[in-house]
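User: tokens in, sequence out, please.
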């Protein structure tokens, strides 16, 4: 048998198992993070699903609007998406959402956002 055939017999199965392992690992989740049974849309829309919560809970007087800009974060509809997704801001981490500043603020026990009280788990 020539060397290229022998290499293929080793490389292809190894690549398959590595790819299968990476796929399995990336598709697993921590069941402890799933706290409640929420009805979520198949795809989330920032404008339709997230902005209504931000408008109701974050844009109030003295909070994250253009006039007060608490924490230097303006969450008015015209700029909220760009403020939250600005590269390097850390407000939203789409690859690891629980590491996001926004998520940490929403679940914080000492400095919970919004100040009026913690959002329910489905909204978070």
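Assistant: Sequence out:
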């Amino acid at each position: 048998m020539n060397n290229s055939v022998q290499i293929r017999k080793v490389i292809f199965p190894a690549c398959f198992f590595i790819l299968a392992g990476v796929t399995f690992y990336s598709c697993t989740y921590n069941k402890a993070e799933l706290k409640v049974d929420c009805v979520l849309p198949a795809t989330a829309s920032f404008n339709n699903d997230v902005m209504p919560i931000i408008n109701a809970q974050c844009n109030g007087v003295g909070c994250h609007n253009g006039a007060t800009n608490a924490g230097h974060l303006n969450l008015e509809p015209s700029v909220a998406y760009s403020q939250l997704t600005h590269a390097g801001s850390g407000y939203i981490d789409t690859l690891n959402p629980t590491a996001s500043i926004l998520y940490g603020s929403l679940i914080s026990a000492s400095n919970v956002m919004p100040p009026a009280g913690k959002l329910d788990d489905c909204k978070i």
